[in-house]
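At this stage, I put together one protein's amino acid sequence and its backbone structure tokens, which the following lines show:
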Amino acid sequence: MAARLYSNENFHRLVVEALREMGHNVVTSLDAGRANQRIPDDEVLKFAAGDGRAVLTFNRLHFVRLHRKTNGRHAGIIVCSEDHDIRALAQRINQAIVDSGTLSGQLLRVNRPA
């Protein structure tokens, strides 16, 4: 399942590239002309949802809160733990997407293995 994703400003470019290689349609904040503008997280989520994209972020705390606040009215949120193994992180994200069936309204947590 290929997903439409929007990577938050803090997300690793190399993970984005690996996800694109896996067939996902990923737009970065830089691609969208929204980098380095201190855009509030709720507006990031609104922008992504307006384009039918799930947010991909390392900003776990704020986006988990936004998921609760919006009662899942968004195109999806994927919160990740940082991992220096770029390929492994991309593969875990891809697997979480496949396992979810749909991203709409979902909060997916992709954690680094212990």
Summary: The first helix runs from residue 13 to 21. The two ends are 27 Å apart (CA to CA).
